[in-house]
Design goal:
Blueprint: E1 18-22, E2 27-30, E3 32-35, E4 41-47, E5 52-58, E6 64-66, E7 75-80, H1 82-85, E8 86-89, E9 92-96, E10 101-105, E11 111-114, E12 122-129, E13 140-145
Parallel strand pairs: 7-13
Antiparallel strand pairs: 1-2, 1-5, 3-4, 4-12, 5-6, 5-11, 7-10, 8-11, 9-10, 12-13
C-alpha cells in the first residue's frame, strides 16, 4: 500500500484560510475549506496528528490564532470524537449531558492538546463562530471529529 503524502504548508507562501498547527511537533497543515451541513464555512483536516499542543492559525504570516484568548466567552466546543481526542489545560471545561459536547472556556494561558492515537487517521471539522455571521471576532471554534 502506497504511503499517502500529507499536505504541509509552505510558510513562505502562506495560504488563505485556516491551518492546523501541530505546535508541539512543528508541522502546519493546510485545511480544506467547504460549506458545512449548517450552511457556514468549515475547515477539514484528514490524516494523522502527533500528540501535543495544537492551534488553528491563519491570516498574514499565520499570525492569527483561533479562537482568540482575550476577552470573555472565548473558547472551543468539542463534539463527537473530539471530546476524546483533545484535552484542554488551564481552561474551564463543562460537559453538556443534554447536547453531549464539551464547552471549553479559554484564557491567555489555555492550551489545547491532541491526546488521540497518533497512528490513526482522523477527520476533523472546524467551524469558527461568530465569523460565520459576519462578526469577525474569532472568539469561538467548534471542533467535530470522527
Amino acid at each position: 500500500m502506497a504511503k499517502k503524502t500529507v499536505k504541509k504548508v509552505d510558510i513562505i507562501k502562506t495560504p488563505e484560510g485556516i491551518c492546523l498547527n501541530e505546535k508541539s511537533f512543528g508541522k502546519v497543515h493546510e485545511l480544506e475549506k467547504k460549506t458545512s451541513i449548517f450552511g457556514v464555512e468549515e475547515y477539514i483536516y484528514r490524516g494523522k496528528l502527533h500528540q501535543g499542543e495544537i492551534t488553528f492559525v491563519g491570516g498574514e504570516g499565520l499570525k492569527d490564532v483561533y479562537p482568540t484568548k482575550e476577552g470573555e466567552n472565548h473558547g472551543y466546543t468539542l463534539e463527537g470524537e473530539a471530546q476524546k481526542l483533545f484535552q484542554a489545560e488551564n481552561a474551564l471545561v463543562r460537559h453538556s449531558e443534554s447536547e453531549d459536547r464539551d464547552f471549553v472556556y479559554v484564557n491567555p494561558r489555555s492550551v489545547l492538546k491532541f491526546v488521540g492515537d497518533s497512528r490513526k487517521n482522523y477527520e476533523i471539522h472546524i467551524r469558527i463562530y461568530d465569523n460565520c455571521y459576519g462578526n469577525g471576532n474569532n472568539r469561538w471554534v467548534v471542533i467535530f471529529a470522527k
